[in-house]
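Translate sequence into structure tokens.
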Amino acid sequence: TRTLHIKDRLARISDLCTDGMRFFGSAVYACALLIEGKIDGFVHLNPHAQDIAAALPLVEKSGGMVTDIDGNTYDLFSRQPLVATNGKIHKALLEKLLEIGIENTILKYS
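Result follows.
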């Protein structure tokens, strides 16, 4: 399926992951782990505003970064992929996502 194809592509960024790569069922949970320093970053491919609105400012307040997959300010209502990190790996993660072909143009959902 398309989802597995995208997950296979994301698995190709494992060289950035020192403790492996995981798929979380909740963006808020991933944000909480990021804020606590238990993960360095995450990519959410199809977020809904109501699932992430409260958590994103907390990521930023804790020193993290939140952007779209092109590195632009994240538009909460765009439903485009979301990249959130501790800030230290943000540029490297964005570059790797572009390298493996994860970009807005292939991830638009109807």
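Note: Confidence is low (pLDDT under 50) at residues 105-110.
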